[in-house]
Structures are given as C-alpha cells and as structure tokens.
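Possible regression after last week's pipeline update?

I re-ran a chain I had predicted before the update to compare outputs. Posting the input and the new output here so someone can diff against the archived version. Not blocking, just want to make sure nothing changed silently.
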Amino acid sequence: MPPKKNWKLSAVRLRRLSKKNIEGLIKEKYEFIIGARIKNETEKIKQEIIAKTGGLENGQNIILDKSDKTRLIISYSDKRRKKDKHNREKGIKKLQEKIKSGKLTKSSINNRGYNKFLKLNGSVAAALDNDKIKNDELWDGLKGYATNTRLEADKIIKNYSHLWQIEKAFRISKTDLRIRPHLHRFCRLYDLQRAGKTS
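New output (post-update):
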C-alpha cells in the first residue's frame, strides 16, 4: 500500500459524522465535503444562519466560517422549501388525527420525527406547539454543507450533488445484484420445464 501521504480524500458524503471524526479528518489533513445537520449546530450558529438566510433567493447561498477551521455553506432552493413545507404539513396532519382520536398519550410520545411539534398540557394532554412549528418554517428550503476545502460554494454544492448521484447509482446496483440470483433461478426452472425435465 502506498504511504498515507500519497492518499488524499477529496470528498466524502455522509449524513452523519461525529465531531470527533471530523476532527480526525482535519488532523490527518484530509479534505472533505459532507452534508451538515444545520439544525444541530450551536445556538449562536443557528441564529446566524437564520439571520443571514432570510433574504436568500432560489440558488443563492451564504458561507459561515467556524472555529474548527471548517466552513458551512448554506444554500436555499424554492424546490426544497416546497418539499420541507409539504413534509411538515403531512406530519402535522397525522399528529392532529392522533390527538383527535386520543391515541397520543404521555407514555407514547418521543421526540422523533414530527413529534417535536408536540407539547404536553398537564400530565397527559398532548397539543401542537405552534411556536415550534413557526420556528421550523424558518429553515424551509435550506441545505447545509460542511467542508474544510477552499473550493467556491457553487463547486462544493456541485461536487456534493455528483456524489449523491453516485451513491444513488450504487444503491440501484446493489438492488439489482440482490434480484439477479432469484431471476436466474426462475429462468433456469422455466427452461427445464420447457425441456420437459421437471414437473
């Protein structure tokens, strides 16, 4: 295997990467581009994101420098805004139906998915938290990318998009590989039946 210094990781696309792993990549001088979970950033950074993205138009982005020598690129798209709004409204509708039916109780509530929009009144009653819903609307259309490269924002987003397409193709390939053995056995059985060698 060639020495480590001859290897350079130019881009990575991972939905989840711990702070410790990011620090490790930086320490080993690897370059990366990863999807950033911007809602999980510190309160200070989240406030800065909301303050600076309020007037973004479709296709525009901002860049934030972080203390760990990485950068956050936040892009906005109308298509993503519509998708975020649709998904939230769909989730809220399901919650409303559960609240109305009485199926939501304190013991059955967790903070997964759209349950984050719930609050408990007293000891058992569940209700929608409109403040949380309004706050979530501020993030509609936003997508974050974390990187330690010095590439321009547009190139970072483009590279990330290419990696997503590669991953998608790879997932399709894996699906095909799982299907083919079954298809092969089916075709072999069909051939034997036609030849009269099996019942």
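Follow-up from reviewer: compared with the archived run. Helices lie at 19-27, 43-53, 78-101, 130-137, 153-194. Marking as no regression found.
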